[in-house]
Amino acid sequence: MRGYFLFAAKRFLQLAVVVFAGTSAAFLVAHFSPISPVETIIGRVSGQSSFSPTAVESLRATLTELFGYDQPLWQQYLNFWGRFIQGDLGPSLIAFPTPAMELVMRALPWTVGLLTVAIVISWILGNLLGGLAGYFQDNRILKSIGVVAIGIQPIPYYIIAFLLVILFGYVWPVMPISGGFAMSVRPAWSVDFVLSVLWHSLLPAFSLVVAGIGTWFFGMRALVSNIVTEDYVTYADLAGVDRRTVVGGYVMRNALVPQLTALAMALGGIFSGTIITEQVFNYPGLGSLLIRAVNGGDSGLVLAVSCVAVIAVASAIFIIDLLHPLLDPRVRVG
Amino acid sequence: MSDPILTVEGLKAYYRVGQFGKNLDIRAVDDVTMQIERGEIYGIAGESSSGKTSLIKVLAAAIRPPLQVIDGSVRYDFGGRIIDPTKASKAELAEIRWKHLSYIMQGSMSVLNPVRRIEQTFRDFAQRPLGLSGAAFRARVEEHLDHLKLPTSVLRSYPHELSGGMRQRVTIGLATVCRPEFMIADEPTTALDVVVQKEVLSLLRTVQQEMGASIIFVTHDMSVHANMTDRIGIVYAGRLVEEGPTRTLFTQPKHPYTAHLVASLPMIGDTRPRPALEGRPPSLADPPKGCRFHPRCPMATEICSREVPPLESVGDRHRSACWHADEVRPLVEPAFDKAAGGVRA
Q1: Which of A92, A235, A259, B17 could be joined to B111 by an S-S link, Cβ 3.0–4.6 Å?
Q2: Which candidate, B4, B7, B39, B78, places its Cα nearest to that of B205?
Q3: Among B152, B155, B165, B171, residue whose Cα is nearest residue B117
């Protein structure tokens, strides 16, 4: 057990290094962006009415100080870390002066909720069906599921999203195709609101499940059809071990280890959002936010979204590293 | 006096494969007839791809396409309960597996599930046939391991934490915990070094003698046969070519193939060159006419290439399928006692 804590501590150090390097890179990329937030704000403000040159000049000085651009780069970098640790990444531009972090936090639950549900559903369904298809290789139904999956697999997920919008939004308009909830409902913890959110998330989630299920299905089927030829499966069959135990405890269980790792990676990737799906369904998540930030030249907001993504992916890998020795006893802790 | 636990009659099992619209039969087991007595260790010897494993698969009821039983019958008699594994239903088979018929497989490295503790594997394999649960089951398993002089701490281990020899001993423990009447051991010691091999063999022999179980013991290693088996059946190209008590087969082989097989055994201090056989074993898809050994046989005559020699009695419990059985002489002086120096009590 002591060895395990040592191992966890080492991995945590690794996590810290990765987060540090990742956010630093994101900071530099945002800093060297050719679009200056100061000039963008001035352009926006002075475009609407006429200002005297001195007023513009003092506005520029104020903004430069606010964003900290009057300081040398290393000072800005240190300030960035100082604020970053407190969870503050400066004001956003597209919704000035709302803090960038607040925008991210507002968008985060939508994306995380939608993607977690979609990924977990497609993971469970894909692995279950793929595992069964790998074990019962002569089963007609499972074979035909395989054929359908092969057909759907190469279709890009945004095409599936568009198809769903056209089918259920125009041809047979029964589903909402835009937004996270109905306009008529107030965002609150009420039954109406929750139902509306679920109803609105159905199509985007379905498009993600349909697009994601094939990868899990084929991965699991390949893993399982390798494992059924392993000696320990043959031996358990020869010993008359209960069929369900063999399928569950010998075949699926052993194929699941790499699939769980892949699940963690997929879940970590959630935080960068699904830009296209969210755009198609006009969903108020991180992906839409990122698009608006890029279009509005809001480097601070892009930085905030990037940092959240870096931390999320690194943490997901960290958690899976911690779980791995528990899932597969052959993975040595050390 | 004969009280066979297993009777095989005229068994034919082929791999039936369709290739380019043509059906191809690979005759892995062709017209095998034999009996195994209660409490006997029956060895099956033969080179690779002679059909040993296919025969074992049929006997263990592990027949999967393309392997099919074409003809003949297999009959187990478990204390009055008669069952033919080639015809029995899955439910019937599940009932006899491990309780009456267990199996020790080749490759001790990979027969245990790597992500299950040994105790869990014992539970999966033996709980149903033993009809025990919880503490009673655990006590029975511990008692059994104790008896085999295995530390009970192995139950808490994962397979990868055990050495190869220990793993094979655990497998023997697993195969014997339900005290089956019949065991099939397929090359159980092939991957082990000779020291561990000797320990594993004596363990298996001790358990077998205590339980009075019968074992079919498959290996291509003739010195292991000399050590372990009461009788040997020699398989060549899917056919049983000679069968007899182990000592008789080593000292007075009545089939030229057996004579060569026995002569190939190296002896300490003996530096004479061994007579080797020309050629390779025939293809089982298109075996030679007549005696399948005739293209490689130094004694072959015209009748050998024309007619299949019947497996006929040539002595006490000794049968040989050779037209010239009377003329076969041992190729080297019999050295059975040297070969069987180790385990045999």
Answers
A1: A235
A2: B39
A3: B155
What pLDDT is recorded for position B337? 64
Mutate to test the interface with B, among A223, A231, A233, A260 (most CBs of B within 10 A): A231
Provide the 3-class DSSP secondary structure of residue A99.
strand
Q: How many CA atoms lie within 13 A of B77 on its CB side?
A: 14
* Pair B249, B75: CB distance under 8 Å: no
Please give the angle made by the CA atoms of B101, B159 and B109, to the nearest 5 degrees.
70
What pairing do the DSSP bridges indicate for beta strands B318-320 and B239-245?
antiparallel
Using CB atoms within 10 Å of the CB of residue B327, give its burial: 0 to 12 exposed, 13 to 18 middle, 19+ buried: exposed
Length of chain B as a residue count = 345
3-class DSSP assignment, residue A267: helix
Q: Is A230 on the interface with B (CB under 8 A)?
A: yes
d(CA A246, CA A234) in angstroms, rounded, equals 10
All residues of chain B having their beta carbon less than 8 Å from the beta carbon of residue A327 are: 115
Q: Which CATH superfamily is domain A110-295 in?
A: MetI-like (1.10.3720.10)
Q: What are the pLDDT digits (tens) for A18-40?
A: 999 999 998 888 878 777 777 77
What is the value of ipTM here, to two decimals? 0.82
Structural contact between residues A42 and A59, judged by C-beta atoms closer than 8 angstroms: yes
Residue A235 C-alpha, separation from nearest chain B C-alpha, in angstroms:
6
- Which class in CATH covers the domain with range B98-220? alpha beta
B113:A250 CB<8 A: yes
Q: Chain A to chain B, count of Cβ pairs less than 8 Å apart?
A: 65
How does residue A325 score in pLDDT terms, banded at 50, 70 and 90? confident
What's the whole-number mean pLDDT along residues B95-108? 85
**Exposure letters B282-310 (e unless 16+ CB within 10 A, then b):** bebeebeebbbbbebbeebeeebeeeebe
From the list B249, B250, B256, the residue with the least C-alpha distance to B315 is B249
- Tell whether B102 is within 8 A of chain A (Cβ): yes
**DSSP H helical segments within A184-331, as ranges?**
191-227, 231-238, 243-245, 253-269, 275-280, 286-295, 299-327
Residues sharing a CB contact under 8 Å with residue B283, sequence separation 6 or more, in sequence order:
none
The sheet with strand B101-104 has its strands ordered as B101-104, B182-186, B214-218, B41-45, B231-236, B239-245, B318-320, B312-315
What is the spatial distance between Cα A71 and Cα A63, in angstroms, rounded to a whole number? Answer: 13
Distance (Å, whole) CA B265 – CA B274:
9
Residue B279, pLDDT above cutoff 90? no
Confidence class for position B122, pLDDT limits 50, 70, 90: very high
* pTM score, whole prediction: 0.77
Give the closest of A232, A240, A245 to B111, CB-based: A232
Confidence of residue B335 (pLDDT cuts 50, 70, 90): low
